[in-house]
Amino acid sequence: MYFKYTNFFVNSFRTIISLKPVTLKIILPLGISFYVFSTLAYLIDVYRGDYKAEKNILSFALYVAFFPKLTAGPIVRGKDFFWQVKEYRGIQWEAFLTGIQIFVFGLFKKIVLADRLGVFVDDVFHAPTAYNTGTVILAAVSYSLQIYFDFSGYSDMAIGVSKILGFDFKPNFNLPYVAKNMSEFWKRWHISLSSWFQDYLYIPLGGGRKGTARTYRNLMIVMLVSGLWHGAGWTFIIWGALHGIASCLNKVVGKKMEALGPSLNRIVTFIGVTLLWVVFRADSFWAAVKVWTGMFTIHTGINQPYAWSFFAIACLITGTIVSFIHSKKTGSVDKKGKLYVNAFYPVLDLSKFWSLVVFFTFCGLTVIMGYFGNTAFIYGAF
């Protein structure tokens, strides 16, 4: 609370009493949200009796400070980590071949797709009134893609490096933009955080078991806390509140929306998520309003059909189609017996010559096409 929120609360109070904001020189420890949540999960699980407390200080220190996941997740639970320490298999060649491919896959998402998109998004969000309607809409869609490729790319790199070192972690993203509603979106986006809030906040509050009003209250609390977790600013709180309202509306009209069909539901959900990402990205709520205004009013201005945005869209669509085909072949179904689309890593057999050709060609394209400006990971700030 001190490191992350002191400046926010001090300046909010100063604004209320009409004083100028100040900035206290507090250095935010890197990855603080992630290792705090990992440690909280461990303490709560031990308290609940889900597993015994770890007696080895080195194993516990490794759990908290394991470097691939330290700065930006995923949030690994103790039950998924400590048994791997006790049964450590060491660095193995087969795991290395898989891990290095997952790492490069994530690297491509980050430096080729996310960072290229970031250049365009930053320009448009800095002065949305200077661009025409189509360009502002493209920038909003581009940010949806940027934050997905950026964070899922980091998660892939963390999972890949962990695999190389002999640890298996669960995927942190599962094609969130194919979600048919907001509830499904949060089951597919930043899965380690969403499941954390579900297990340690939503269910203890009562979940959806104690009446409609309590369910809506619990959803709002969880999404507000999620917004505050993402950053110390009113834009994040508003973003969380809007997602809470959207989740409540999903409970109200969810069954009626199903009548529209899965394809239309996916489009509506993506549009809703994209509109909410605008306030997440904007420097202030009124800056977000300017972007929304630019999206929904017909006006002239700079026309910039950014090529990398269309390339990123093509990559996302291609990956999604392949995942649909793969899920259908593997017989992936949900609780209702309907097709459930799962993402997967396109891992090649690197013992074969042509697999090596494809892999090293992909590595070369990643380096050639990558953007190497000053671009930090988005979630590294949280």
| Number of helices in the DSSP assignment | 15
Mean pLDDT: 93
N-end to C-end Cα span: 13 Å
- Measured by DSSP, the beta-strand proportion falls in under 5%
Helix-and-strand structural type: mainly alpha
> How large, in whole angstroms, is the Cα Rg?
22 Å
Question: What does the model show?
Answer:
By secondary structure, this protein is mainly α. It is 66% helix and 0% strand. It contains 15 helices and no strands. The chain is globular. The two termini are 13 Å apart. The mean pLDDT is 93.
Helix and strand layout, with pairings?
Elements lengths: L1 H15 L15 H17 L8 H9 L1 H4 L11 H5 L6 H34 L6 H33 L16 H7 L2 H12 L9 H19 L3 H25 L3 H20 L3 H12 L10 H24 L22 H17 L13
What are the defining features of this structure?
single chain, 382 residues, mainly alpha, 15 helices
Concise summary:
With 382 residues, the chain is an all-alpha fold.
